[in-house]
Amino acid sequence: MYVSLILFSVLILTYRDEFFILRLTRSLVLTAFQISLTAFISRSLGLTKLRANLLSLSLEDYSLKVYGVSLAIAVGLYLLYFFFHKTTHYTYKSVQSFILITAIFSFMGLLTFSGILVYQSALWTKNFFGNVGIDEILYTLSQPLTGTDAGQIYTFILGPLLNAVVLSFLIVFLYRIFFLFVWSNKDTSFYTLSSKKNICLTIVSLIIMSTGILAGVSTIGYSELKAYFFEKSTLYEDYFTDPHDVKITFPSQKRNLIYIYVESLESTYLSKELGGIQEENLLPHLSELAQTENGINFSHQNNLGGAIQVPGVGFTVGGMVAQSAGVPLKVTGGYNENEYGNTTSFMPGLTSIGTILAEQGYNQAILMGSDASFGGAR
């Protein structure tokens, strides 16, 4: 961090421009690029210790080379800028002109950044979490980060977010080279942006953003997105039974109930003879229990089944809702009308086994190995 602070101080003192806001902006942008580039190089080399100390004021011995490379690139860009400004003074006609052109390039940079971030995030999601569905992604995004492993957040920041920042900076740098027009007046040259180049810049930015979004959608799965947002199912009308329409009789002497949720327990652990994929049955006791008179196993075949999941049940809270209420955790309308993810009023109107037990006077409690708020489970 000391290196970045020194770089910023040198830049703001040596930039040749009478506008302080211009010197400040350029110095901040180039210093931010140097920090991002340092993180990018350290991530590529696997220097995990440097990641933790990147924003601190400490420097590890082995990280000096990384800081040196990123500093050399940043200083190289500055020297390139200084070389072109050595004989002719380049500036903006006024502060208003600087603000307008900066706003235009910032907006186009934001469009570019958005497209790159969407695509990089889609790749990261598939590589990091595997074959997750859009329902799981949307539900996770709607929930707070309480109880989430901080390592996942750091991985995202140093992965797709960092890639998007570095690539966007380089692309915006190219924008300035190809689209920023310069007209001269004696010894001074002024930056300006013609209407034609403004249109071209907008088109290029929109193309990059659209390409990134479409590539991200393709990575997640276009058919899955289409089914989730635009296709209507009659599953509930055809098969759902309202628990209030069923007479449930409790014994006079009510018994205690222990309900165990087991994460990532699936029928693929069974032997092939029982419907799994293993040579040897890895769940002998559970499979025996499922085949007894008192055992229940929901299967699509004569053997034990359950490996194929319907949408909306393949993540922690989705599986809990599906087991306790008999429906997948999927909302077809707006989130607000169903209190989707609201921890104080979770999907009101839906009757679950917890609702039925509460009506019968049961005192209920849940024990979890993680934070109770993780994934909206509270």
Protein architecture, described:
The structure is a single chain. Strands 1-3-2 form a three-stranded mixed beta sheet. The protein has 13 helices and three strands; from the N terminus they run H-H-H-H-E-H-H-H-E-E-H-H-H-H-H-H. The radius of gyration is 29 Å and the shape is elongated. It is mainly alpha-helical. A hairpin with a 2-residue loop joins strand 2 and strand 3.
Write the layout of secondary structure elements.
Blueprint: H1 2-14, H2 20-45, H3 48-53, H4 64-84, E1 89-92, H5 95-129, H6 134-141, H7 150-179, E2 181-185, E3 188-192, H8 195-220, H9 222-230, H10 235-239, H11 284-290, H12 316-325, H13 353-359
Parallel strand pairs: 1-3
Antiparallel strand pairs: 2-3
InterPro entries: Alkaline_phosphatase_core_sf (IPR017850), OpgB/LTA_synthase_biosynth (IPR050448)
Organism: Enterococcus gallinarum
Transmembrane segments: 26-45, 66-84, 96-119, 161-183, 203-222
- For the biggest β-sheet, the strand order reads 1-3-2
Order of helices and strands: HHHHEHHHEEHHHHHH
In DSSP terms, counting alpha (H) and pi (I) runs of 4 or more, how many helices? 13
**Poorly predicted regions:** 54-62, 333-338
